[in-house]
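Customer ticket, subject: "Can you confirm the structure for MetA-pathway of phenol degradation?"

Message body: Hello, I'm evaluating your service for our small team and ran a test protein. I'd like someone to confirm that this is what the system normally returns, since I don't have a reference to compare against.
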Amino acid sequence: MRHPFPATVPVVAVPVRWALLASVLAALPGCAQWRPQVAPAVAVPQPALPPLPQANLPYEKFREYGRFLARRLFWKHAQVGTEPRSADRTGFDGYQQFDAYADSRADQAKEEFFKGRYNRSRARLPENIERWRSEPDIANPGPDLANFPNSAFTLPQGRAYVEFSPFTYYGSAGKASPAQYNAEFLLRYGATDDIELRLFGNGVSWIGGSASSWGFSPIAFDTKIQMWTEKQDYFLPAAGFEAYIQTQWLGSAEFNGGTQPSFTFNFDQSLPWEIDLEYNLGATRVQDAAGNNDWEFSFQWGLQRDLFNKDFAVFVHGFYNAMTLPRLPNAQVVFGTGNNQFRQNAVGGGFVWTVNRRLSVYGQASGGTTRFTPSVLGMLGLALAF
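Agent reply: Thanks for trying us out. I re-ran your input and got the following:
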């Protein structure tokens, strides 16, 4: 038989979920004294919370603040017809310290987020895009001259990169082409968040062989369009479209290969173990030894991963037939019209070091795998963000 409670002891309507919460809180360190009890009709003063522990672990601040909020929540629903006193609302004497610490950790998390090479799609989300536009960031989207493929991502509107590789060397490819030195540069400007205007050139150049000479390589007008960002839930890579026109402007005769167009589709995809995959598929028109223009399929790829932290990354990369930009020396003497055996291919590795938000240093060393490819491809350069 069920006996009713005595009339002198009122029943407190505590929902089951709050009773469960109180049981969980009772198991936490420092909260054992707060076991669920029948509250009298008169409000019971809440004891003051102990001071914020001065522990070495920063997460103790979060635990302490969590206990404070849980106690407030319990008392609010456990005391019928009562409201927390003003002292209860400010009973956590370490709140200001916690609040400042939380702000500091949030700023650090944002810095790490926008340094990451693998969060370039997330930076373009509506809640992040204003911050992405507001500050120069050399790591997002990152320099394109660092490796053979180009990324699918563009600069934010109004931002600019200057990429300069003053030490670029291509070894000889037997009788196909002599050794060559270039001082490559790439100027990039974000016309919109999805359209980038670019100007590329091999700069001051030297060609070896029996008739070695110095000169200036012609410039190329380039543009890149961001098509869509990465959709990891569907394993869909970020995609972009890039096209350039190699002109004969400002070029010395030894380095002119005619007016040549090219286009590629650029893809970026995040892989397991924090590896970033970049690959480009396209077509490039080149001039053969007889002065004829031939279209050739081109493919570039790269795998990159942070090594020590998000400021230093290493990569392996390669290309088939051509790089995404017209960087190979004297391509017109390597190919023959209708002769499919004249192929160029190279594989190598390198690094990208993000010094700060505005400066990045990169380098790579690769080797040709066919007799028509330069035997050695080496490069060292830097990139600046504005």
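A couple of notes from the result: Residues 363 and 380 are 4 Å apart (CA to CA). The radius of gyration is 32 Å. Feel free to reply with more questions.
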